[in-house]
Automatic annotation (TrEMBL):
Assigned keywords, A-Z: Hydrolase
EC number: 3.5.-.-
InterPro entries registered for this protein in UniProt: RutC-like_sf, YjgF/YER057c/UK114
Pfam families: Ribonuc_L-PSP
Molecular-function GO terms, alphabetical: hydrolase activity
Name by which UniProt lists this protein: RidA family protein
């Protein structure tokens, strides 16, 4: 994959790329949005802990396709308040810590999810040969 960050526009605000070029013929995986719901049904109150569960779930889904965090080409995330952004971004940066090419990214503030205790939802696109 190739990161696309033209010098003619402002640089990204955080650890992401403005665009990603996926080579022809690569396999694509798209996950559903993952919530901070642990396997035992518990939901932590903290956004960072919820986001860590989201990324752990995503890691497991990608593994089913023989992929991992290094294959992620786009991250889409939704939080219920600006106050949750630092916790989400810390979990996202930990998930992407080993990535040679940073994915593109979208972060949106939403009014809520299916249950009020959820404060973050994350989905990804991944690509691999």
């Amino acid at each position: 994959m190739k990161s696309l960050n033209p010098d003619s526009i402002a640089p990204p605000f955080a650890r992401y790329s403005h665009g990603i070029e996926v080579p022809p013929g690569w396999r694509m995986v798209r996950t559903s949005g993952q919530l901070g719901l642990d396997r035992d049904g518990s939901v932590p109150e903290d956004c960072k802990a919820q986001a860590a569960i989201c990324f752990a779930n995503i890691t497991a889904i990608l593994a089913e396709a023989g992929m991992g965090p290094g294959d992620v080409c786009h991250v889409g995330a939704y939080v219920t308040d600006r106050a949750h952004m630092p916790g989400y971004m810390a979990a996202r940066d930990a998930f992407l810590a080993e990535n040679a090419v940073l994915p593109s990214s979208t972060l949106v503030i939403v009014s809520g999810f299916t249950r009020p205790e959820f404060v973050v939802e994350v989905e990804v696109w991944a690509a691999a040969p």
